[in-house]
Amino acid sequence: MADYGVTAPQGFVASATTAGIKVSGNPDMALVVNQGPEFSAAAVFTRNRVFAAPVKVSRENVEDGQIKAVLFNAGNANACNGVQGEKDARESVTHVAKNLGLQDSDIGVCSTGLIGELLPMDKLNAGIDQLTADGALGDNGTAAAKAIMTTDTVDKETVVFADGWTVGGMGKGVGMMAPSLATMLVCLTTDASITPEMAQTALSNATAVTFDTLDIDGSTSTNDTVFLLASGASGITPSQDDLNDAVYAACSDLAAKLQADAEGVTKRVSVTVTGTANNEQAINAARTVARDNLFKCAMFGSDPNWGRVLAAVGMADADMDPEKISVFFNDQAVCLDSTGAPGAREVDLSGADIAVRIDLGTGGDGEATVRTTDLSHSYVEINSAYST
Amino acid sequence: MADYGVTAPQGFVASATTAGIKVSGNPDMALVVNQGPEFSAAAVFTRNRVFAAPVKVSRENVEDGQIKAVLFNAGNANACNGVQGEKDARESVTHVAKNLGLQDSDIGVCSTGLIGELLPMDKLNAGIDQLTADGALGDNGTAAAKAIMTTDTVDKETVVFADGWTVGGMGKGVGMMAPSLATMLVCLTTDASITPEMAQTALSNATAVTFDTLDIDGSTSTNDTVFLLASGASGITPSQDDLNDAVYAACSDLAAKLQADAEGVTKRVSVTVTGTANNEQAINAARTVARDNLFKCAMFGSDPNWGRVLAAVGMADADMDPEKISVFFNDQAVCLDSTGAPGAREVDLSGADIAVRIDLGTGGDGEATVRTTDLSHSYVEINSAYST
Fold it and tell me: Which of B21, B110, B263, B304 is deepest in the core (most CB within 10 A)?
């Protein structure tokens, strides 16, 4: 049992291997296995109507609230591969189930990488045999976290110690991050003894205010998947509130790590909107600003160009008083009543973290925060030559 | 009478001057005057709820369907300047009206440039006196077109010769281009004898399928304004259809010139969506793809990464059959039935123009095209240091 990551909670083992799917030759396959005694599972998937084959298969298999193992590969998303893609995803699930002595419906599958390329099934099947070979499965959470990286520069793990039970997790994701989760694969594990319903409630509540409010570039992946697996090995059944808190803490920590490692990021920007009729309007407005390229370029340039904030928020689907909008950069007022505040252009935004707060002036108590990044040269560089 | 631009139609004169509003020291003010005998006018303005003072004043003054002169300044948008900004806009209108012996309500006013800086009224008032000085007003359409440029690299004019009557125009705009017009000022002139209603019908129809479908960076300006002024000097009253056609042709030509000169553009990209239930869904889908940063970066890299097109369109507010989506780059199939087509990755996108066509597979006959550009290093460069 590790002190960090997916194998931190009791009842979980993992393995990782290099199957040759990544051109880099780095580890590219991982397996997380729940050894029980319980197997409650919950999941949240991308809302993109163009979703990958592994999403389709995992969605089916988690339907019954039970998942005993999740297979991961990086380097190939197995998305937009039509009938063959689905066939390949099912074949890999059957292979894992057979090697572990489980049913196909006990297996979850996650792929990340290039869209539109068929999986190299020979390599994938050889990798599955390595992941399930004698002695392969163990306290290997960190190795698994490294194996699911794509253009991530660091592996991302988390742990939350509760009262006699634990939540662990790993995640990956760097670009194509948008409202319907980031482009990411996340696997959370816990040794709490909980029902699938408790797990789904905790996971849905947590993702709504963590991964769903992480918006790096407005793009949404075909593969986004978050699993929560519960082994019950601690023998402790927490209250729903305690479970919600622990799962939220784990998701929030991983979301912050995804933001910090986003493609080409030089600034971590939080956009908070207040003064709306409700939280939904606040999040619409925060997302509109967080996605505005002119605003994001200004952040890259450490330019306190608050006019772009007003221009962006003015198009948001939210009620506002166009004469009473206020904007704060790092808590310094730069715009009051929709007009420049003294010294606004002298605000120092040279630091790596920028907090933008916008009050839309309706007097309502709606509030929401969206995490985003700046739009930098390296974002363009990385994303103008990804598939080639 | 010129053969091009706003002074091509009979009855129009213009002037331009350097008032010192632009830091560059280039010409930065212009005046377009309709000498009649008729003064029908129509206008379309930004839909941004945060709109500039000149938009507010121009909207009031065109209410009665009559505008006799339009004042332009570049270098300062007079946006987000609160009460003082509106006072300054009205003062400039009153000054022009007084010098020309007109009523305030006869004057339109347009500003473009940095948001949130007060207009230098001393310079502006001196400029107005120069624009209206003896001999200043004449066949100076091109000089006016140059004076309204901001980061435009070329001045933008157009002319459409109809059957005995003419439509001329000038425009500017390079960034912050989005659905509610581009970030742009456009002034169209015609010597046709038409009612304000005819003018508004022709202008609204034309902008809906030209400037409104130009989406460079998803941002929407606080100052977007398009004027159509009619002098009736030709004595000819065209049919509404003929007027619509000529105004559309003028707007389409200017929209193409705005796209070609967009900030940092290295590729001119058209995104056409077909196979939707109606045109509205097609434009929603085309706009979603045209705004997707990962797609735009791929275009910059001449990368036929059709997977990003599917990932982007999958989030669009449009009905689709996720299994039956087809994508074409420059008329070559790269994705059929949501799966890669043979040779898809070898498509040559090295040219400056890229036509992307997406069929959403519902069998509907909805269709729409959005013009956009790639996302390049220079876009980031230009926009990360605009106000500084």
Answer: B110
pLDDT at res. B324: 93
Which residues have CB under 8 Å from B358's CB, separation 6+? Answer: B271, B272, B273, B274, B285, B286, B289, B309, B313, B325, B326, B327, B328
Q: Chain B partners of A306 at a C-beta cutoff of 8 Å?
A: 116
Active site (annotated) includes residue A153 = no
Question: Which residue segment(s) compose the domain that A202 sits in?
Answer: 12-261
Both A159 and A281 in one domain: the answer is no
Q: Which residue has the tokens 């970066």?
A: B297
CATH number at residue B348: 3.10.20.340
For residues A56 and A115, membership in a common domain is answered with yes
Tell me the C-alpha distance between A58 and B135, whole Å.
Answer: 77
Please check whether residue B379 touches A, CB under 8 A.
yes
Q: pLDDT of A38-69, one tens digit each?
A: 999 999 998 888 899 999 999 999 999 999 99
Mean pLDDT of A299-306: 91
Q: Convert the pLDDT of each residue in B236-283 to its tens digit.
A: 999 999 999 999 999 999 988 888 887 778 899 999 999 999 999 999
* Minimal Cβ distance to A386: which of B47, B305, B322: B305
Same domain, A226 and A374: no
| Residue of A183, A210, A274, A362 with catalytic role | A183
Supply the pTM of this predicted model. 0.81
A335: in domain: yes
3-state secondary structure of B279: helix
Cβ-nearest to B82 among A178, A338, A383: A338
Same domain (yes/no): B238, B273: no
Q: How many domains, chain A?
A: 2
pLDDT per residue as tens digits for the range B74-116: 999 999 999 999 999 999 999 999 999 999 999 999 999 888 8
Structure tokens at A386: 């990804």
Q: Is residue A232 part of a domain?
A: yes
ipTM metric: 0.79
CB neighbours (10 Å) of residue B25?
A: 9
Across A30-45, average pLDDT: 96
Determine, for residues B176 and A221 on separate chains, whether the beta-carbon distance falls below 8 Å. Answer: no
The count of other CB atoms within 10 Å of the CB of residue A204 is: 17
Which of B244, B261, B278 represents a domain boundary (last residue)?
B261
